Amino acid sequence: MSSAGPLRSRSPEPIRLDARAADNLRYIREAMERAGEFTAVPGWGGLAMGCTALAAAGFAAQQHTSNRWLLVWLIEAIVAITIAASAAALKARRVRLPLFSGPGRKFVLSFVPPIFVGALLTAVLFRAGLVAALPGTWLLLYGTAVVTGGAFSVRIVPVMGLGLMALGVVALFSPERWGDLFMGAGFGGLQILFGAIIARRYGGGQSGSTRTRKTIQGQASRKLERGSRRVQRKRAGGI
User: Fold this and answer.
1) Is 113 a domain residue?
2) Does residue 161 register a pLDDT over 90?
3) Could you point out which of 3, 63, 158, 223 has its C-alpha 20 to 30 Å from the C-alpha of 179?
4) Local structure of residue 186 (DSSP, 8 states)
5) Which pLDDT belongs to residue 144?
C-alpha cells in the first residue's frame, strides 16, 4: 500500500487590497464633496445681494412707467448674479476646492432651469401687459430654484427657498402696488437674514471653511487608518 502524501494546508484566500483601497478612496471623495457643501453657497455674498435688492426695491417704487420699473429690476438681477458668482468663486479659491465639482455642479444644474423659465415668463407677461404678476412670478420661481439647488447644499438653503415661494404665492394674489414691498422682503430681507446665518454657521470666512475641511479630512484619515489595521490583522492571521 502506498503511503499517503503529506497533508497540505490550504493557503488563505488573498486579501483584495485593491478593493479596499477603492473603498477608502471613494470615502475620501464623498467626504470632500460633503465639505464642498459649505463652499457652494456664498453667505456674505447672499447678504450683499439682499442689500442691493432693498435699494432696488426702493428705487423701483419711485418709477412711473413699467419700462423703467422693469429696467431697475433687470439691472438688479445682473448685479446679484455678479455678486453671487464672485463670492462663490472667491470662497472656492480660498478653501482650494473646484467651484463646479460635486455639490457645486449639482447646485448650478438644479438652480438654472427655474431661473431660465422665469426669464421666459418675464418676456411673455410683460408683452401681455401683466406686469402686476411679475413680482409673484419672480419670487416663486427664484424660491423654486433655491429649493432645488439647495437639495445639494446646506440644509438651511431650501428653507430660504420655501420662504421665497411663500412670499411669491401671497404676492400673486395681492394688489399691484405691494409688488416692490414683497420683492424687498424676499430678495432683500430673506437674503440678508439667511446670508448672515450661512456665513456664520457654514464658513462665511476662511476659518470656518478651513475648520470644516480639516474635520472631514481627519475623519477620512481615521477611516484609512482603521482599514489599514484590519488588513494587517488579516495578514497576520493568515501566516
Assistant:
1) yes
2) yes
3) 158
4) I
5) 95
